[in-house]
TrEMBL record, chains A, B:
KW Ligase (keyword) present: yes
Pathway: Aromatic compound metabolism; phenylacetate degradation
Name of the protein described by the UniProt record: Phenylacetate-coenzyme A ligase
Catalytic function, reaction form: 2-phenylacetate + ATP + CoA = phenylacetyl-CoA + AMP + diphosphate
Record PANTHER family: BLR5969 PROTEIN
Keyword set, alphabetical order: Ligase, Nucleotide-binding
Family: Belongs to the phenylacetyl-CoA ligase family.
Function: Catalyzes the activation of phenylacetic acid (PA) to phenylacetyl-CoA (PA-CoA).
This enzyme's EC code(s): 6.2.1.30
GO molecular function per UniProt: ligase activity
InterPro entries linked: AMP-bd_C_sf (IPR045851), AMP-dep_Lig_C (IPR028154), AMP-dep_synth/lig_dom (IPR000873), ANL_N_sf (IPR042099), PA_CoA_ligase (IPR011880)
Domain AMP-dependent ligase C-terminal as annotated: residue spans: 350-446
Keyword Nucleotidyltransferase applies: no
């Protein structure tokens, strides 16, 4: 009754506003009833896993019955360390024979983690991914180039199954190899592409080096960007560079991967799919719940996963619930873009700094290019935060006085934001190291130089 | 009526002999009736594509009706050059909106090629892949590590969908990174893995370097090897190194990718799925059909592909139909292992040589290691074929006379096979270049040294 049939979907796929009208616009009271029912099912399943079988609170709650979503606060959190400790099979809640895929972190440092999926889980994930893309305006008629790495990384297969579920023509391009990406885009008239934001700056440079302008020489109208925190300014730049709308995608492998929360065409925060997850925001210090609007750590509970339910997972991602309803009509609440991770924060000279705060300031300045990095070093017997900033070509000119003024202005703006005056180095465009995977923004040399 | 229901399959998956009993053991007369019906459908679909719409013979055959499979010989061949010439949309037989995936060659030299798939095509491919693995003894209870590259290369997604369809626990490991491959195998108790044969020698070296023996320190019982021609001797070596059964997998992207033909547990040739393909063997020079048992070029016609049917595709792969029935009871005919490609052949001093002929000789010798290469060079004013051969550690010893005898013996055996006396160089184990992708076996320096 809640799910629409595939046949209906195929018939009118171009005319509908939503991928699953009824589920996406469910009145809050009904959505919470659905959550309660599914939470109960998830706890029953979870209790079959060695890890949660040991959890007295889950046992008690299952015996006594769970009456409201808020009762979830009586249950203990699950952390990344829990996942590592009970690696590999400790969170498996299903018969091994039922599991058809795992995604595991590569785990070069510390123990790896793993997530298991059965047939139902993969179908549900693909559906959430299709729903997300549909909300961002992607349609069956689109040609979708996925520039994510495939394999164990969830950005590849996660998007692939969702794109196919939606019915787009998928191009499983994989990560890197910019010249081939450009050729594929032009050969097949790619209209939508998915990539991490730091790669798109690099891809744009290759377009220009080839004498091409992506705004004119491709049919792109939409970019999906995620897997890396980024600012609103960075999004606007990407949109300008490619002449597209760029939508923010959020996910993490512990909650499947991509398709957890996604921007609709309003671009005012990411709808987090509350039929599939219970969302809490907590103070990462006190672990107490925070009210809507206040920024804290995102905590999530799976509601539609059978092989490996996870209860109250501390994502370490910092965000807030955006108050108010979205004009699109979806009743699932929206989270703000991720502004860092609770463990990204570094402390220098007694100040708590999130790299995103620095990025937010830099990306607002028209003189600044797409690349920067923060170096924490021990110089002249004291700790210093050095911010290296690539300027745009036209700004990196011979006028030393103008550069000095800009340098002072940036230092001043950053001091106002992070309450600490950094050393600012303005550098030539293209001089900071480039990467095809996630950019390394913070380099801490304090331990080695002391 | 021919397809079994998923429910039935799940119930008794461990007890059945075949993945699809009825289809796999269909009496030849019925199988050919099915082929005829599907050929007719395929030609109707093909005629919708710009390329085949121009084909007068298809038009005539559709008007007059096709009465027997042999009539296919009246139709023209399709070559890789045709695919390139009509790139990208010339072979598309479906509405673009219906297509949900493409696989394209990277095309660094010459024009790329592309194959399109709709929902039906991907489901059919996944089913052929599952049927193939089931024939090689893989079951739902297995843990399957796919060491193929993902993305546009068909070995990744092709196997992935098939493994999930079969119901194994899939580990989408991707290519390379041997230490991680080994860790995944041990962490999750991998029982089946898929890789290209030349990579497995390298992986084995890494096992040994880590002080591990894959026969003792893994739970592997089956390896699936393909995407690279290899000899029976190479298979036996891989089986001995890993303590497993190794099964030969054959496919090519123009015919989907993997899942075209596969060895059953009898290991006596590869069943080629004749409900999905019409198989011909032709003389690559005269283009005339060859009788069963004679080696020639494999020509294939898709019977179950909707978005992009391909008629009489010249695969350039050299093989033969193995006469006689297989004890396993499957009625689909078997092809011999691929012994090279019609365009791999090189001509030196007037002799036609296939690299597989050289490999076949070398791999029979107990003194020879897993790596070799053929260099064609212009020395002292004449063309020479130089065969560089890595010896096994225990054979590369100080006894020069013994080495000289071995060198002469190899030269002699090769001359008997290819009718040309090569220069043989015996080299230390590990001294020839290693690769994680397909090994480069032939290096032609004749043009540059002349
Ligand atoms: Zn909205
Ligand atoms: Zn057989």
């Amino acid at each position: 009754m809640i799910m629409e049939s595939d046949a209906t979907r195929a018939m009118d796929s171009e005319n509908r506003t939503y991928w699953e009208s009824e589920l996406e616009t469910l009145p809050r009271a009904e959505l919470e009833k659905l959550q309660l029912r599914r939470l109960n099912e998830s706890l029953h399943l979870a209790a079959r896993s060695p890890h949660y079988a040991k959890c007295a609170q889950i046992g008690r709650m299952l015996r006594e019955g769970i009456k409201s979503i808020e009762q979830i606060r009586e249950l203990p959190f699950t952390t990344k360390d829990d996942l590592r400790q009970d690696f590999p099979w400790g969170f498996l809640a299903a018969d091994k024979r039922e599991v058809i895929r795992l995604h595991s972190s590569s785990g070069t440092t510390g123990n790896p983690t793993v997530v298991f999926h059965n047939q139902h889980d993969l179908a549900s994930w693909a559906n959430l991914m299709a729903r997300s893309l549909y909300a961002a305006g992607v349609r069956q008629t689109d040609v979708f180039q996925n520039m994510s790495g495939y394999g164990l990384f969830t950005g590849g297969l996660g998007f692939q199954y969702g794109i196919e579920r939606l019915g787009c023509l998928s191009i499983p391009a994989g990560a890197g190899n910019s010249l081939r990406q450009i050729k594929l885009m032009r050969d097949f008239g790619t209209t939508v592409a998915h990539a991490i934001p730091s790669y798109l700056g690099r891809l744009h440079e290759v377009f220009l080096a080839e004498g091409l302008d992506p705004r004119r020489d491709t049919q792109l109208h939409t970019l999906v960007i995620g897997a890396e925190p980024h600012t609103e300014e960075q999004r606007r730049r990407i949109e300008a560079m490619f002449g597209v709308k760029a939508y923010n995608s959020f996910g993490l492998s512990e909650m499947n991967g991509p398709g957890v929360a996604f921007e609709c065409t309003e671009q005012n925060g990411l709808h987090i799919w509350e039929d599939a997850y219970i969302v809490e925001i907590i103070d990462p210090q006190t672990l107490e719940p925070l009210p809507d609007g206040e920024r804290g750590e995102l905590v999530m509970t799976t509601l539609d996963r059978q092989a490996m339910p996870v209860i109250r997972y501390r994502t370490r991602d910092l965000t807030r619930i955006l108050p108010g309803a979205c004009p699109c009509g979806r009743t699932h609440r929206r989270i703000d873009r991720i502004t860092g991770r609770s463990d990204d924060m570094f402390i220098i000279k007694g100040c708590n700094v999130f790299p995103m705060q620095v990025e937010g300031i830099l990306m607002k300045l028209p003189e600044v290019g797409d690349n920067y990095r923060i170096i924490l070093d021990h110089l002249d017997d004291q700790d210093e935060m050095i911010v290296e900033v690539e300027l745009k070509r036209e700004w990196f000119s011979g006028d030393v006085e103008r550069l000095t003024r800009l340098q002072r202005r940036i230092a001043h703006l950053l001091r106002d934001e992070v309450l600490l005056r950094p050393l600012v180095r303005l550098v030539e465009p293209g001089s900071l190291p480039r990467t095809e995977s996630k950019a390394v923004r913070v380099i801490d040399r304090r331990k080695t130089s002391k």
